[in-house]
Design a protein that fits this description.
heterodimer, A: 297 residues, B: 291 residues, mainly alpha, 12 helices
Amino acid sequence: MKRFYFEEESLQVAPLHVPLYKRASAQDVASIGFGLFVISYLVVFFIISGTNIFVKDPMEINVSKMFQPPSFEHILGTDYLGRDIFSRIVMGTQAFFIPGLLSITISTAFGLLFGVISGFYPRISSKIIFFVLNIIDTIPRFIFILIIIVLFSPSIYLIMAFVGITSIPKITAYIKAKVEVLMQQRFIEAGRALGLSQMTIIFKHIVWLSSKSVLIIHATLGMGEAILIETALSYLGFGVQEPVPSWGNMVAMGTDYFFQGKVWLATIPAITILFTIMGLYLLGDGLNSMYNEKVSR
Amino acid sequence: MVRALRLILKEVFYTLALIIGVTALLFLFFNLMPGDFAGKGEGFPAYLTLLKKLFSFRFGRSVVSGVDIGSIVFPAFRNTLILTIGAIFISLIIAVPIGIFAAFRSFRSYSWPAMVFSYIISSIPVFYLGYLVLFFVSRQTGFLPIYYPDSSAGPYRFLSYVLPIIVLGVGNDAISEIVRLISSELGRVMSTDYVIASKARGESVLASSVNEGIAIPLVSIVCARIPFLIGGAVIIEYVFNWPGMGRLAFQSTLDRDLPVLIVITFLSVLMVRAGMILKEILLYVFNPGKR
């Protein structure tokens, strides 16, 4: 009986396809849940700020109510002109929501395109594409954005489009590596033998069925990076300008009063930024470890 | 040895090609830009003079202040170099122990506070962290100075280097990335057969598997972080009034001082490529397969 031990062991073949919900560990569930919570409040804030029903007017100045700490009337207090901080935070999602979506659309679409092309034709086109992408990659992103601001206008849509362009190289590298691995696989060969067209193989089997997870993960992380860059630029005064609220210029405004002990003015938007970015990073990392792939930010 | 030299030469040639590409891209942007300034619309000869200026390190004069650009850029470049290298070391000092700890304890036991700490610390906005540190460390306790100008404080001026370096090292998002990388790589290495065998022999697993598992990915990830650190340096130098390249870039963006910005881009591209060459050399040293 004993000597059949190894043979019995080898008979238990691992199941070919494990459903996603069985692959997730407790850590993944926790981080994805937190990330979905963050995304849901971002979407809710964005929708509310468009309708202007549930929030006070973020531009309404009330000089008799300056620097109020959090209370029932103003949930998160008021700023140096008596404007309600909570409604300004809700309104601040408008500063990055659509531009951030623009940025991740550009980066994933062009990253996918260049990645598939350079993975399929690795000899000439991949060298040219990667030389051009390396040029973009070597310029530090923040300096590149400053040059764009000097040369063209400091519009947030243009800046976010360039943020998207500067994150094309990373996505292209991952998609290219993925395509090169996939081209060696049997099922692509089988698909060829069955007479599937090149387009079906590329768009169905390589892009949709195999590269979806990489794109979703990079889109999540790209949204986090877009928010970071938007807040940093608004903090420096290059992004969204003052009367229009943005989380970055709210922190910048609050730091003027930080040393007087009015700490909540800067702390509340800063904590909002922290939670949002942490949620997006956790969502990306959780999805990443659930799909069990080595994708690095 | 010949192979190493050939590797370095190849990287240097690639760097030269990239710099020519970067300057060509910038030159293309000038010609798309609305407005008029010296050198626009003159085509290829103007590009050649730009290249000549950059490669001879005689950058000419600033448009706004009229100062020689070299005399303001090089001290700033030195300061940013100090800031960046110090920040990399701080990130490594914080992130590597957390990653190793997390890999050994594989999250379910006591390592989750360390992981959560690494996430919080790497997603806190760096400008807010700077003010927080200034408020608590410099103002409330007076423990470390905010900033000493170069000449006035004598030997104590190095104390003012401490806070910006720590904040940049803590506040960039390298920490969670390094932690995740180390914990996953180390987890992979620790489950391999030879590590289990050496565990059974009673050898120290940590020393051997750390060397095997994380040296190569760590080198590549740290060198790839350099452009992001330069970006973070812009904000940190603004918060701490640090006389570096980032604050110079900020100032010249406000002034629309294009020549200074071009020189800053050139120097930071040089810095990034130097990091890449260093990475190739270190990979050659660490990875026996490449020799």
